[in-house]
Amino acid sequence: xxxxxxxxxxxxxxxxxxxxxxxxxxxxxxxxxxxxxxxxxxxxxxxxxxxxxxxxxxxxxxxxxxxxxxxxxxxxxxxxxxxxxxxxxxxxxxxxxxxxxxxxxxxxxxxxxxxxxxxxxxxxxxxxxxxxxxxxxxxxxxxxxxxxxxxxxxxxxxxxxxxxxxxxxxxxxxxxxxxxxxxxxxxxxxxxxxxxxxxxxxxxxxxxxxxxxxxxxxxxxxxxxxxxxxxxxxxxxxxxxxxxxx
Length: 246
Prior knowledge:
Number of domains: 1
Helix content: under 10%
Oligomer: single chain
Radius of gyration: 18 Å
Number of strands: 15
Strand content: 35-45%
Structural class: mainly beta
Largest sheet: 7 strands, mixed
Strand order of the largest sheet: 1-15-3-4-10-6-7
Order of helices and strands: EEHHEEEEEEEEEEEEE
Distance between the termini: 11 Å
């Protein structure tokens, strides 16, 4: 069973051998078994019905729950923040890998003073280095019409040409389907932020993410080694995770 769509700031950390549906405030997991113990394969869950952007993203009140009560009104004062509705299903495979199959709807408002000819998705599981993973971008749509993104930076960036320039203050509705494969690692040199270790799946920014736009340029450069990698503006999220209950 998956919980209902829940607003939260999104970071996905799942226990591979004993997964349940996630929510905004999961309980602390018990101590992880030895990293040498392989995860238990689980049947592939099925994605629930796709979120409807007009319903899931239009209502700002639903995002209050992700805020401390004294700051809930900040949501209403920020109606132009990018909004994401994300639905993802997680499968733990017999070979020790994990698969995340998902789709997202995005409501993006142009907060610049000039029209935008395109919008960019960052596919961070393709970054290498700290990401022991790979990502495939499926069908992408803009305002209900399918488009073919231009892939850049060795697959890290998907540039989406808009059918018409997006005027200042105007909104675009985007959707994307995606699949992520996460692989195990057992220590060694360097620090990893995405993959499977100690039977725990670490999967931050597993979804197509719109980066910051600075001085008219999308910030799409690969991150330097170490430290934080992602670069995006504050945003509002409603999300659903479907995962095995074992």
